[in-house]
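Risk register update: the risk of archive-format incompatibility is retired. Evidence:
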Amino acid sequence: MQAAALVGGGEVWKPVCGLDGKNLEDFQGITSRRWNASSVTPLAGQKQFFESCHPGLEWVATTTARPLLRLAMERRLPLLVEPPELAQYLNDPQLLIVDLSRAEHYAEGHLPGAVHLEYFHLVATRGPAQGELPDEKHLGALFSALGLMPNTHVVAYDDECNGRAARLLWTLDVIGHPHFSLLNGGLEAWTEGGWPLTVVPGKRTPTRYTVALSGGARADKDYVLGQLNNEKTVLLDTRSPGEYHGSIKRAARAGHIPGAVNFDWVRAMDTQHCLRIRPAEQLKKEFEALGVTPDKEIIVYCHTHHRSAHTYIVLKALGYPDVKGYPGSWSEWGNLPDTPIE
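Archived output:
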């Protein structure tokens, strides 16, 4: 993991005048800039970014740290949020940042205020299906412990391609919680840009969050069976080509659901830019070439709806209005004796 300055360490730079002659107390702009204490060099891109947003600010060094600005989030963050934009909202009380990285990586450094969530809390095993959705009682206790409230905006990320983070956001969509974002590029993009990390565990006040599961973002085996001959529905298999064609066997039977088209989930990632989501126009062309078009219902699946949860978020970010995830996926379908396969 690339090193980044820890919150509270090093010098702090802050503007001493507001924009257009306004006092800082009257101006809702970033009021502090953190420097790496070892090199006394500004963290990459941060100061330049805010200067471009707020020209005319004068910067001076101080040893008195001021907290990052708390914004009211008058407009919601986009579904795919970039590190510079998220950095402006770190102190917003309506923001909940959830880190789904491995525990040891979270302990080494995470986004300021981020709480850690182990991935196993988001999945359940029922019969052969290894990626099923936990029940309402479990999810209600989980989100209450995280301090979730109806107006909370959740930003999720992880240290492994954002598949775990996307599964959390899909779960929020299933329970009807509409306010969420994926940190584009995850932890790697954040640290690559030099944005602050902390080793202080995030703390949230528990709430009483009531969960009600809905079917809008979820498809079960019976629903998928009912759509196999529906021309208005596309099954999108996001596993590797080997799993799709059956040369790689991870269940009792190999192959894919009849009629499904294959789009390996990693194809959506830009390997040259911290695994961020690739440009929208490129992805739209590739999906449409497979018959995955916005006018159809899209059902995504993989082996446990981990990889396909990422593709679910990609499609939603591209503006696809009707997308469902099949949590049982191939761990269920490929282990049953009577489901049709190709």
